[in-house]
Design a protein that fits this description.
2 domains; 9-stranded antiparallel sheet; 9 strands; globular; 14 helices
């Protein structure tokens, strides 16, 4: 029996239509062609290869999907400039052959990734059918190798871009972070990787202080002061760039990697695609717990006060209790 996707407490986007979710799934063990075909089989459209490293599934019911080898130096063909500096010029046939060889070699370490366009929540079970199809084809996830730090990323459209909504969601995430790590058994390879480094303790305590009700400029400035990287378990740089692009781009962050969009970029979960008991509802439902805490002001205030009474960032028994509650949903 499949796990149902839990409802979010705020179902609508700022313009009143249903909120949408973008999903990024990293894996190994299957080819880009097989991944593209699994998408096309579920959502229609046409497969359009771009290179040995990138394939598109165009004009599906919900827009364009991208299937790619997640290595920018290969996708952008920047390695060719290095070869030219060494005096090596490749004709088209040689370049294509080298691309195929590099794609095969890199694919043993670098994740293959499906990047789905934002879809309404009711479409998530269909994305999970794509996941199931690839699991049947031998897709490998986070725990298949010590070298794999593969993740499942959710881009959750914001209900509001106002600080009165964003601040409680951020606070709820900071409070639940340790519980999420426990509940989802975040792989050690991912925890040690540079991609999901925890928020600094001094920033966490600042945001959780009584009376922290910033305006949007203060909220963004506080974030940029302490988080000059997209490599956080909850990356707010794309959302903040949507709100105030100049403010974000003036900071020393990874400008070329930030794509402004009105979405919360949740990067924490493993991708356990090779586990037949795992599905997309598990990480989504864990996120839903964050929003449900944010939607309960009394519970949020009590949890915030409890956190600040404890030393450093350790939530101890409270984190264990929350982890058990999250597992009930996943």
């Amino acid at each position: 029996m499949s796990t149902p996707f839990r409802d979010l407490p705020w179902p609508d986007a700022p313009d009143g239509r249903p909120r949408r979710i973008g999903v990024e799934i990293e894996m190994a063990g299957v080819t880009l062609d097989a991944m593209a075909e699994a998408v096309r089989a579920e959502f229609g459209g046409r497969i359009e290869p771009d290179s040995a490293f990138v394939t598109h599934v165009r004009e599906t019911e919900f827009g364009d999907f991208e299937v790619e080898l997640d290595a920018r130096v290969l996708k952008d063909h920047r390695y060719r400039a290095h070869l030219r500096r060494l005096g090596i010029e490749l004709d088209d046939a040689d370049s294509d052959a080298l691309d195929r060889w590099l794609a095969d070699a890199a694919g043993r370490l670098v994740p293959h990734e499906i990047v789905a366009p934002p879809v309404p929540m009711h479409v998530l079970p269909r994305l999970d059918r794509v996941r199931a199809a690839l699991q049947q084809k031998g897709a490998q996830g986070t725990q298949s190798s010590l070298l794999y730090a593969f993740g499942l990323q959710l881009n959750i459209e914001a209900h509001s871009l106002e600080p009165a909504w964003l601040t409680p969601v951020l606070q709820a995430f900071l409070l639940l972070y340790e519980a999420l790590v426990k509940a989802e058994n975040i792989d050690l390879s991912r925890q040690l990787s540079p991609y999901i480094k925890p928020f600094p303790g001094h920033y966490v305590r600042h945001v959780l202080q009584p009376g922290y009700r910033p305006g949007i400029s203060e909220l963004i400035d506080d974030y940029l002061e302490h988080n000059q990287t997209r490599n956080r378990p909850l990356d707010l740089l794309p959302l903040f760039a949507e709100v105030d692009r100049e403010r974000v781009m003036a900071a020393p962050v990874e400008h070329e990697l930030i794509k402004p969009r009105p979405a919360l970029h949740y990067r924490l979960p493993n991708c356990e695609i090779d586990d037949p008991d795992w599905n997309l509802a598990r990480p989504f439902n864990a996120w839903a717990e964050v929003e449900h805490l944010a939607a309960d002001p009394d519970h949020l205030e009590a949890a915030r006060a409890e956190y600040l009474r404890r030393p450093a960032q350790a939530l101890g028994q409270l984190a264990d209790e929350w982890a058990r509650r999250i597992r009930d949903w996943v």
